[in-house]
Amino acid sequence: MTNPFDAIVLGAGIVGVSTAVHLQRCGLAVALVDRKTPGTETSYGNAGLIQREGVYPYAFPRQLATLLKYAGNRAPDVRYHLGALLKTAPFLLRYWRHSRSDRHAAIARLYAPLIEHCVAEHRALADAAGAGGLIRHQGWFKIFHDARTQEAQTREAQKWFDEFGVAFEACDAAALRQAEPDLSASLVGGLRYPDADTVSDPGALAAAYARHFDSLGGRILHGDANTLEPGWKVRTREGDITARAAVVALGPWSGDLVNTRLRYRLPLAVKRGYHRHYEPAPGARLNHPVLDVANGFLLAPMSRGIRVTTGIEFADRDAPKTPAQIAAVEPMARGLFPLGRPVEAEPWMGARPCTPDMLPIIGPAPRHKDLWFAFGHAHHGLTLGPVTGRLIAQMMTGAQTFVDPAPFRADRFCPGFRVQVPFFVVRRNAVL
Asked: What three-state secondary structure class fits 208?
């Protein structure tokens, strides 16, 4: 391949394809490089929530009783591999410190502007990609087994509304039953977040965004991101390619390139998770995704059936599957909703890329000119894919950003570095 590109985007998950689309819309010549087909790794497996309510990122528990519960390694919502827990202890300690209530509140104030735009950005990109039918505008539910938990969660929802205008609807048992007649009658009520959107097939949505990128003139190539060399050059199945700039959007694999090969020391870790699809029992229907707050699993109506997703597993990213967590929640899920037989032969497993301050890394690399980072979105990769893509494109082309990018810059973890932010001088036909 002889013609150089303006930009190479490494990683074809939801963040990478969204970034590639926005850069291509700016009139740049963009290559999207991944070892696999777009949308078939981490972006394939999640709860399908575009979380407009998610202004407070998921914190590390600080209550002693909760920590003691998890220490036994039998809780349905959190499991761990002991070796991985010891290896990531410094990361977890920093995560725990950032989760203190006052620090968590400060982080939420930085995070909220990203979350604020998530629904509008997804809808605009889905409509442009002809994928609007994959997005449902009906919100999702938290559901409760006892009044005490419901009251605590309602107080928290009121706090989110007072601080950030996040809408919610409190439902008693009768209202929940009206919305979801096939859920267990033992539930005492729920909370609905009406401004969130949900997705019937997250992998298909990422694939649709990739097809849209292709229709704009972008190139989708198969290659190994770890062959990246300053210049910027990457080896692909279709031949070596070069570009003026490169974007690392590799999700849980970002550390392999950024820390191992490029010698950064960004604090990155993963939380693994599982899902499995089940047929609904004859005549049964689930209208919304529903989160069992007490047990930390979610049921979501998907194109392949009812997707049961687990909480988190602290383990090495590439360690063999240990689907004990989904085995533990399956009977609970069957008690909530009449599930039929599983669709897949075994559960799917993926990993969420995390930072200790719960904020993604979006912006220029501290030590490499024309290298950009877009990873570390933890539980909100799907939610923030199009927001991140638009923000990165604006930063790279020198446009006015629609969100202040300063809180997400990589140099917050690299004291002493002063980033010289490069811009593309010419922006052709920019649509930002």
From this structure: helix
